């Protein structure tokens, strides 16, 4: 099955995800990462953080989902890499909103490279976030 | 204590086999807000050509974690976990992970660098299935903050 017709620069998906403290507890359990900076304000403050932070791997994990949904079984994610450039602070009442824009970065015979722009509170939180997709 | 530069090229013993459970895949998928039916619905996964529900792309971190625990526990490594920040992460997949896979990971340190008082440790975990066939390679760069950072 082929990928849909795409060209470099085209936005293929845009999504916003709201995460809250419950999201962090759920990810801690699912992943096994129980670092208390992801659920305890006192511990986060004691190591000089601006607040409880989302797991970087939670942000990385949700940021690729718009691409998976866009592929809709026509291809699969064969490579994925990010730099963690800025933490996502999760407010105890407001949570945090993570915005993802997925843009075609390159196209070749086997598939494409999709570049992700991932931001929260007005700042970019993942750098060089690139998804390699391969057509099925 | 700084990170030991002699960690470079060190390879660790393979981890105990990790059996990927169907409910674990569903639990992880819910946690990363992965709603595609192939992650949850067996019939949908099979219709898409997979033997069982498909793990989301970042799921291998669960298997990789056991290898990073080996690295952090290395007696001469000099890595203080309370000063560790995740700098970069990358996955390269030979195929998607599916429920029923029995995965084993082997970690190798590929570089140790010093930069502005911090140390950057890059480690590659090669994850194979029960037949020894490659499934995914996970590469992490850990930033170990120095005393002044």
TrEMBL record, chain A:
Pfam families assigned to the protein according to its UniProt record, in alphabetical order: MaoC_dehydratas
Residue ranges constituting the MaoC-like domain according to the UniProt record: 11-102
Family: Belongs to the enoyl-CoA hydratase/isomerase family.
Name of this chain's protein: MaoC/PaaZ C-terminal domain-containing protein
Biological source species: Microcella daejeonensis
UniProtKB/TrEMBL annotation, chain B:
InterPro entries: FAS1-like_DH_region, HadA-like, HotDog_dom_sf, UPF0336/Enoyl-CoA_hydratase
One GO molecular-function entry: (3R)-hydroxyacyl-[acyl-carrier-protein] dehydratase activity
Highest taxon of the lineage: Bacteria
GO biological process: fatty acid biosynthetic process
Record-linked Gene3D superfamilies: Hotdog Thioesterase
Annotated FAS1-like dehydratase domain residues: 16-137
CDD domains for this protein: R_hydratase_like (cd03441)
SUPFAM superfamilies assigned: Thioesterase/thiol ester dehydrase-isomerase (SSF54637)
UniProt xrefs under HAMAP family: UPF0336 (MF_00799)
Family per record: Belongs to the UPF0336 family.
Protein name: UPF0336 protein OVN18_03265
């Amino acid at each position: 099955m082929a990928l849909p017709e795409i060209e470099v620069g085209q936005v293929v998906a845009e999504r916003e995800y709201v995460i809250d403290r419950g999201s962090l507890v759920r990810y801690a359990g699912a992943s096994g990462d129980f670092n208390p900076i992801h659920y305890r304000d006192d511990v986060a403050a004691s190591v000089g953080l601006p607040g409880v932070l989302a797991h970087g791997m939670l942000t990385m994990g949700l940021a690729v989902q718009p691409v998976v949904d866009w592929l809709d079984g026509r291809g699969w994610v064969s490579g994925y890499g990010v730099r963690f450039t800025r933490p996502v602070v999760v407010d105890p009442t407001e949570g945090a909103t993570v915005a993802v824009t997925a843009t075609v970065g390159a196209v070749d015979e086997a598939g494409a490279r999709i570049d992700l722009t991932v931001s929260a509170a007005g700042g970019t939180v993942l750098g060089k976030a690139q998804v390699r997709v391969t057509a099925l | 204590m700084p990170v030991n530069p002699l960690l470079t090229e060190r390879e660790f013993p393979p981890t105990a086999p990790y059996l990927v459970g169907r409910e674990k895949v569903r639990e992880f998928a819910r946690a990363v807000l992965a709603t595609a039916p192939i992650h949850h619905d067996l019939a949908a996964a099979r219709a898409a050509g997979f033997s069982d529900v498909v793990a989301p792309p970042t799921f291998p971190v669960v298997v990789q974690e056991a290898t990073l625990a080996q690295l952090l526990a290395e007696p001469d490594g000099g890595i203080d976990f309370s000063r560790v920040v995740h700098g970069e992460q990358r996955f390269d997949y030979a195929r998607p992970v599916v429920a029923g896979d029995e995965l084993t990971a082997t970690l190798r340190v590929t570089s140790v660098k010093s930069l502005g008082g911090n140390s950057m440790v890059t480690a590659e975990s090669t994850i194979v299935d029960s037949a020894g066939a490659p499934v995914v390679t996970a590469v992490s760069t850990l930033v170990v903050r120095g005393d002044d950072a």
